[in-house]
């Protein structure tokens, strides 16, 4: 069974997230493109939608990342990682697509990706074997 890597960043700026994503892609080139969403000011979700990883690779990348330690610890303990696609509570909005990171092109905004993300289910979960 293969998995995709999802990461949650809290209390950081976009430059921090991009630096970490670029570093992770250098560590594991098969991660490929990353989709970056902003859930609120200083809070980001990163999804490597095309990567096919073993659970051990996911765990290794969790530890190599600077992602929110609570998200990493909980994901490893329960054996799955879930990122919210819907709004959180009455005051918050669903995470907003802000761009794609491609190892060859850098960071850019893609209209097609933005449109496709609007049609996804409300949550995505990955499970360990």
What does this structure look like?
This protein is α+β, with helices and mostly antiparallel strands and 129 residues long. The protein has one domain (3-127). Helix content is 32%, strand content 36%. Strands 1-3-2-5-6 form a five-stranded antiparallel beta sheet, with helices on both faces. A two-stranded antiparallel sheet has the order 4-7. The radius of gyration is 14 Å and the shape is globular. The mean pLDDT is 81.
Oligomer: single chain
What's the average pLDDT?
Answer: 81
Number of helices: 4
So what's the overall shape? globular
**Helical residue percent?**
25-40%
How many DSSP E strands? Answer: 7
Question: What is the number of independent domains?
Answer: 1
What are the main properties of this structure?
129 residues; alpha+beta; five-stranded antiparallel beta sheet; two-stranded antiparallel ribbon; 4 helices
Give the helices and strands, then pairings.
Layout: E1 3-10, H1 14-27, E2 34-40, E3 43-53, H2 55-64, H3 69-78, E4 80-84, E5 96-102, E6 106-108, H4 111-117, E7 123-127
Antiparallel strand pairs: 1-3, 2-3, 2-5, 4-7, 5-6
Give a short synopsis of this structure.
The chain is of the alpha+beta class and 129 residues long. It contains four helices and seven strands.
């Amino acid at each position: 069974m293969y998995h995709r890597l999802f990461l949650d960043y809290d209390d950081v700026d976009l430059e921090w997230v991009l630096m970490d994503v670029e570093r992770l892609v250098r560590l594991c080139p098969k991660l490929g493109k990353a989709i970056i969403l902003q859930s609120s000011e200083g809070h980001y979700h990163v999804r490597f939608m095309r990567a096919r990883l073993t659970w051990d690779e996911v765990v290794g990348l969790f530890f190599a990342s600077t992602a929110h330690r609570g998200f990493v610890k909980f994901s490893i303990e329960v054996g799955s990682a879930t990122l919210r696609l819907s709004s959180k509570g009455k005051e918050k909005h669903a995470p907003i697509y802000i761009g794609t990171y491609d190892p060859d092109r850098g960071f850019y905004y893609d209209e097609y990706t933005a449109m496709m993300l609007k049609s996804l289910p409300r949550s995505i979960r990955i499970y360990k074997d």
